[in-house]
Amino acid sequence: MAKIYKSHLPSLQVPDESIFTHLFSTRFFDFPPSSPAFIDAATDVKLTRGDVRDMCLALAFGLRNTLKTLGGVQLKRGDVVLIFSPNSILWPIMLFGSIAAGLRVTLANSNYVSRELEHQWVDSRAKAIFVAPPLLPVVQDMFRAAGLSEAETRQRIVLADWGSYEGSGGLSSQFITMTKLLGGGKLATEEKFPGKQSSETVLLCYSSGTTGKPKGVETTHRNITYCVNMTRVVYPTSTTQDVMLAVLPFFHIFGVSNILTFSFLIGSTIVIMPKFDPVDFCRNIEKYKVTMSMIVPPICLALIHHPATTKFNLKSLRFMASGAAPLSEAVVKATEARLQSVGAQTMVCQGYGLTETSPTTHFLPLEDRLRKVGSVGVLIPNLEARLVVDNTTDAELGGMGELWVRGPNVMKGYLNNPEATKNSITLDGWFKTGDVAIRDSDGYYYIVDRQKELIKYKGFQVAPAELESVLIQHPDIVDAAVIGVYSDKDASELPRAYVVHGKGLKGEAAVAFGNEVEKWIAPRVAKHKLLRGGVVVVDAVPRSAAGKILRRELRDLAKREVAGVRAKL
User: Fold this and answer.
1) Distance of alpha carbon 396 from alpha carbon 36, whole angstroms
2) How far apart are CA 473 and CA 309, in angstroms?
3) What is the pLDDT of residues 317-327, one digit of tens each?
4) Which backbone phi and psi does 99 adopt, to 5 degrees?
5) If you placed Cys at 546, which of 176, 324, 391, 568 could pair as Cys (CB 3.0 to 4.6 Å)?
6) Ranges of each domain in the chain
7) What percent of the chain has pLDDT over 70?
8) Is the domain defined by 35-192 classed in CATH 3.30.1330.10?
9) Is-contact 103 126, C-beta < 8 A?
């Protein structure tokens, strides 16, 4: 019989309705329309909750009606629009306005080149694209490569020319713009998705899942409304209005669900930064009296090591929640100590989730952040979990197994990919996360690593995340990543580390430091975890915008390094 773990928290009942209907409902969340909602840190433009609702309904009207009259495509309920933009104050308007219009929204990485963007455009079957003016050349290249004429391209582009990009350097006269769409009227009410209709797809974030090319994750209205309310139970909200510093990319599920949607749901003021910069991050905490931020581990590392931490008043910052990648005990303690040294009593903890789970499944209560440091916390309400070994049997208590989860926030499936969906979701609703976890006797979960990234050294499993957490404790290392490199001589994978030295090292000094680190770590880990594949000093560890280590790039680098050694021999 399967060993099923249930959340110890009472389950919730959430209305089956549109995300937009839910967010602006006064049945549960009675925040005055005059309450501050969003602030653009780059321009200091501010929007109240009333402003956001009015602008979203105006954009919804523009998308369903004005767009066609301006020479654009005709959009109907269920059509897909793509957002291609860095963070800006326009993001909530583009997102929630499209949802109010009854559309599905696919979110593209703003760092994509035209080839990458084309895959998502074609796969999602998008009909129109919101584009920030600086990214317009990428979109034009994409359509040109796809064989579209200039006229056809203009039909599909909506230039995001408001807020940070107001005026747009003359481009506004050449394209359909958000300013034009916002000025044509307003829907009396949003498109409704009651009852079973709430299980219609609304978001298409792209994820590689446990394997393969990026796939469109079909996230429903119900997935999001349940997830943000389940998260609300465990999230440490304040008795006064919180100010959230939003620095993670909104094109990622972490940003779009946990920051844009969840933080709006709980009535926070959301200060939007276009991207992370340690000086701007600290400056904005002081300027807007920020109380909380959702972050990724590299932000902790920056706060530990960057001098900006000592140059601004950070005392308002009471809490930071990390996700997307493992946060080690050493980094938690070093971050809190660094902030305490400048008078900020900031608490740091982490949670866990995936694009496919909308995203949150686990959260570590603040009161347990040090007692259970390193844990991603407990299951949030309405969820069940299993730890499965080799896709067949359940792990014993304290044993490792692939984490499977089941609940109302699990995606509908992968777009246009029934085979991948079948491989990821069992017939009885269990989503296979691809992450290896341990559950302790108190019900706290620890993510060991990605199943596909575990290193096998002569039959022993070695978790890269564990070695990385040890390496970060070295006083001269500011970032680290570990991969496995195959050795013909040993007939096995060997753990190999890529580290960033705080002062930057080159040549012989870098080689010497790598050798020193190999010796330094030896007494701190079991013998099968020794860095037998070597330690290489790099300028930076390659990471995604959400902070995840891009191990594939490191594997490619390792292959080139090995090939170079062989060539010399």
Assistant:
1) 49
2) 19
3) 999 999 877 78
4) -65, -40
5) 324
6) 35-192, 198-451, 454-568
7) 95
8) no
9) no
